[in-house]
Amino acid sequence: MTIHPGHFVAIVGGACAGSEAAFQLAQRGIYVAVFDQQALPHGKIEDGLPKWHVKLRDKEENKINEKLSHPNIFYVPKTRMGRDIDFQQFVEKWGFSAVLMACGAWRDRPLPVDGIDAYHGDGFYYQNYFVDWFNHYHEPSYNRHQCEIHDNAIVIGGGLASIDVVKILMLESTARALKKLGHDVDVLSLEHKGIPHKLNELGVKWEDLGINGCTLYYRRRDIDMPLAPLPDNPEKQEKAFSVRQRILKNAQEKYLFNFEDRCKPVDKIIENDRIAGLVFRKTEVANGRVSDIPGSDFSVRSPLVISSIGSIPECIHGVPASGELFAIKDRDTGQMSGYDHVFALGNAVTGRGNIRESALHAQQVAIHVMDEYLFWKDSDFEKVQQEGWDTLSTLPAKRVLSVAQIEQLIERITKYQQRIGYDNDYPKWVEKNRPVRLESLLESE
Predict the structure, then answer these.
(1) 306-358: per-residue pLDDT in tens?
(2) CA angle, 221 as apex, 126 and 245 as ends, to 5°?
(3) CATH number at 8-106+313-444
């Protein structure tokens, strides 16, 4: 690679948002270093999207891989900001033109039950931990998490992610009960057909399984569940409420879980140093506000509780924070408080696990950084392509780095790549580190 003077941008996180921003920058002649904490930069497409979404997962991961294969992009795997690299040194001393934080939302929002986090792994899990286990436990070399499955589990949530959690519980419970009856059924086919349809095929009645099913508890009404967008137009809201109820009803009919609305957890039940259930309080919803109903507390005993009430960015020492989130000066541009050249994008800002929204926000921030911060527009790139990079000196101030500065950054990046055995051949690295797929194991049986 022949190095030319120009800009060099660092991106922390290489999934939907990070790869989109990296590609936008690289296409305009900017060097990009993408640091990701995992071996592969697929983020929640790999670890948060349940493994039955085979086609969607493969499509989105292929998009990420295609973007990060651009020759201007240097990928640095297995490198975690705050653990392997000090954030403040990184943004203040390394010398990048700009730093983009696309590190997603990997931390579960804490369940507001005093002291419950002390029992994580003992009858209590958070969603991200649980779904990671579900997605990968079939892999021969998987050793990150171990989770139990119990009937009568409690799930706290209300969004689409919590529907995924109750589905996992019901699919796993059903597959295990069927195995005891001599039927070997995989969760992929069970999810695709639905539990009643599969039982009918096998000539098995639901009652034969001896399963009660898990229960999803939500603090608001079923019509408040964010399962479908709610328009601003009041006339269209009634239709949206009906759509939300229909999505919930269809999921219940297909996967046989239970649902209770207007209940919130207020305390835990402990037995033998494990979670053994929760104490709930009934609520009422008026004018969009949730209120407790005094004297309405009731106990629900259960061997397993899973919290699925949303995800937030992980705390990184030195990164400005505002409550649970990064401190963002401007959501549209992603500029972070306290730094002129640090920007956040994707789920770390939107707080939503929407693939399209994340990519669009990344594109918006990347274009802003190029046009308004680096002052490096399409027309500038076209000029140096036509007339050569030597013409940079004739352009107005562009905050460009010299060849020596860029080579120094590449040398530093290469040391981090070599530390974990990455030789900058991205396609080869993907093939080597792609997880074992359940569908592949099933095909080989």
Answers:
(1) 999 999 999 999 999 888 889 999 989 999 999 999 999 998 887 777 899 99
(2) 95
(3) 3.40.50.720
